[in-house]
Amino acid sequence: MKHIESTASGGVRRITLNRPEVLNAINHAMHYELESAFDAFAAAEDEQVCVVTGAGRAFCAGSDLKAAITEGRQPYPPHGYAGLIERFDCQKPIIAAVNGLALGGGFELALACDLIIAAESASFGLPEPLVGAVALGGGLHRLARMVPAKQAMGMILASRRVGAGEGYALGFVTEVVPDTQLDAAIDRWCADILRASPVSIRASKELVAAGLAEPDIAAAMRMQSAHPAFQAWAASDDAREGPRAFAEKRAPQWNGK
After folding, report:
1. What pLDDT is attached to residue 68?
2. Distance CA 139, CA 55 (A)
3. What is the band of 5 on the pLDDT scale with cuts at 50, 70, 90?
4. What is the mean pLDDT of residues 38-53?
5. How many Cβ atoms sit within 10 Å of the Cβ of residue 117?
6. Taking the mean position of all CA atoms in its chain, how far away is CA 102?
């Protein structure tokens, strides 16, 4: 792949946006490279966590506007902007390791991940109105669901950029770490996820997403047992292995099935 790096090891898929000379701005070809990388992660039975980050001093500055002028309006891949924005069927956790600027579509890419681990120097914003655009890659809707409405509107209408610490205070950043400790923090989060049953992790992610679509907690709890994710977990080997290992005072051996 020309514009990204995608590798897998130890149950973790790592995707690096690799156009540092343009702050990892996304052009047409890059959308499809990201689609392919996320497809590979979703299909791989031996990969349980995905980490997305950027090369250089930026996570992603959003769309490559200069390339857009020459390329014209091009269709996005099946799962939308960056191959992730409309990937609502991915059951496995995706972590954004935000190492710097995350603006426009770059912020939308981070918001589409399950966790955002940010370096202290990271900053976030949706500056699309400043260039006559609208944040149509889910940023308007995800941000408004993650933070208080007035704070979301302030960021959106004033194209306001916030730092990692403020993002954490608002609630859309999971953890803030010193820049030099970002890689170690990502390794720690991956290790914490990998020690658990993959089936339980997948079911938990799906049930959270499904529950948020329900009108209240009671309705969310009522729908749990009928959800395919619950049924897959209930019928799994892992659901039996966990209690068995606890009773036998040994570490569980998950097979993810």
Report:
1. 77
2. 22
3. very high
4. 97
5. 25
6. 13
Q: What's the distance, CA 85 to chain centroid?
A: 9
Tokens coding 159: 């194209």
Q: What is the pLDDT of residues 206-237, one digit of tens each?
A: 999 999 999 999 999 999 988 988 899 999 99
Known catalytic residues are 108, 128
Return d(Cα 121, Cα 188) in angstroms, integer. 20
For the chain, the three-class secondary structure string (H helix, E strand, C coil) is CCCEEEEEECCEEEEEECCHHHCCCECHHHHHHHHHHHHHHHHCCCCCEEEEEECCCEEECCECHHHHHHHCCCCCCCCCHHHCCCCCCCCCCEEEEECCEEECHHHHHHHCCCEEEEECCCEEECCHHHHCCCCCCCHHHHHHHHCCHHHHHHHHHCCCCEEHHHHHHHCCCCEEECHHHHHHHHHHHHHHHHCCCHHHHHHHHHHHHHHHCCCCHHHHHHHHHHCHHHHHHHCCHHHHHHHHHHHCCCCCCCCCC
pLDDT > 90 in the chain, percent = 90
**Mean per-residue pLDDT for 170-187?**
99
Q: Which of 21-30, 143-152, 238-247 has the lowest mean pLDDT?
A: 238-247
Q: What is the Cα–Cα distance from 130 to 172, expressed in whole angstroms?
A: 23
52 close to 15: Cβ distance less than 8 angstroms? yes
Buried (b) or exposed (e) across 82-101, using 16+ Cβ within 10 A? Answer: bbbbbbeebbbbbbbbbbbb
